[in-house]
Amino acid sequence: MTDLFGDEPQSSRARRSSARLRQAKRRAQRRRNFISFVVMLVALALLVGGGWVLVRPLLDGNEQVSEEPTDYPGPGTGEVQVVIEEGASGGEMASVLLEADVVASRTAFINAFNANPDAAGIQPGTHVLAQQMRAEDAVAVMADGSTLSDTRITIPEQWRATQIYDRVAQRLDVDVSEVEEAADAVAADYLPDVAGGEMEGWLAASTYNVHPDDTATDVLEGMVDRTIELLDSMDVPAADRQDVLIKASIVEAEVIRDDERARVALVIENRLDNCSGDGRLGMDSTVAYGLGITLGEALTQERLREDTPYNTRLNPGLPPGPISSPSQGSIEAVLAPAAGDLCYFVSDLETGESLFAATLEEHNENRETINNRNSNDEG
């Protein structure tokens, strides 16, 4: 009996021990797999959360914000002025309006901004709005322009300083003498030294938003700033800026068709290099400016012989200053004139075409061609 049922055989005990060992290993492996899975989930959550923190500022103002917006019921009370800067995004506008308590949250304004197809037309400047408005209403009234309290002043290319002063006085509802006094102060204290204290040519042709509390001095300084910004963007050296504006103002006055600017700029350079033999520009636009008349007025022989500093038919070289506010296109033409030996041009006022020539003989033939063409048209 002892031999049959006593101690368990060695092989049976070994098998059970091996089975328990395998089970223990499987349990340990499952624990390791579970821990690895939890670590992976945590890492993924951290990655997604960190990515959202980085991406969300880039989307601000251009996406539908997901959280529940806080909004005022409207219609709003009182009145407040807010200033929207040039190029402001929807998110930036939202911050300005939230600070002024026009809207209850940035979220509400951004969602309303994105939902209104006219919102992109909101103009920079000073807007007068009620406080505690519904965001949708704030976007709508800003987009239709009814809240904009700024005065808009548009200065066309080729306008002279005297014309600009008249326009500023009209828009600010002040006497022109007040604008002229402001111009004297700006010329003395604000203009770059290279301008020689003369405002002509430094009042950039553009459209300006004038805030309700702006003075004539503020407006004129803004025009000078815009000219400087334009010249800075074109990398024009400070010492060359007056000459560039003089040449560009002549191009502006003489050109009828935009595609001829670079060739007129070339003629100016070649005339200054003495291609005509006398170093004179011979530009009627400068003569007219020196006489205080428009280029459209008749330049009689008597007027052409009148010796002013701007009479480039009599005096070699550039005139002492610009003759108007040039456009960006004319400045670009001066900085990159056409290539060649062109020395003369004559314009057909009927067609707007200019005929260019390298020699005086060719120039006279061009003048005859235009005269005959116009005579035949009249006949």
How do you describe this structure in short?
This is Endolytic murein transglycosylase. With 379 residues, the chain is mostly helical.
Give a verbal description of the structure.
The chain is mainly alpha-helical. It folds into three domains: 77-143, Endolytic murein transglycosylase (Dna Ligase, domain 1); 151-233, no CATH class; 240-378, no CATH class. It has helices at residues 2-5, 10-59, 90-99, 106-115, 135-143, 161-172, 176-189, 216-233, 241-254, 261-272, 284-291, 301-304, 328-335, 360-378, and strands spanning 77-84, 125-131, 151-154, 207-210, 344-347, 354-357. The strands form three sheets. Strands 1-2 form a two-stranded antiparallel sheet. A hairpin with a 6-residue loop joins β5 (344-347) and β6 (354-357). The chain is elongated, with a radius of gyration of 38 Å. The N and C termini lie far apart (149 Å).
Biggest sheet record: 2 strands, antiparallel
Treating each run of at least 4 consecutive H or I residues as one helix, how many helices?
14
H/E element sequence: HHEHHEHEHHEHHHHHHEEH
Q: Give the DSSP E fraction (strand runs of 2 or more residues).
A: 5-15%
The number of E-state strands comes to 6
List the domain count as a whole number.
3
> In terms of per-residue confidence, which ranges show pLDDT below 50 for 5 or more consecutive residues?
1-11, 57-66
Please give the share of residues in helix: 40-55%
The Rg value, from CA coordinates, equals 38 Å
Secondary-structure-derived class = mainly alpha
Mean pLDDT: 85
Widest β-sheet, arrangement of strands: 1-2
Ends distance? 149 Å
Q: Write down the overall geometry.
A: elongated
Region (Disordered): 1-22, 309-329
Membrane topology: Single-pass membrane protein
GO biological process, one term: peptidoglycan biosynthetic process
Enzyme class: lyase
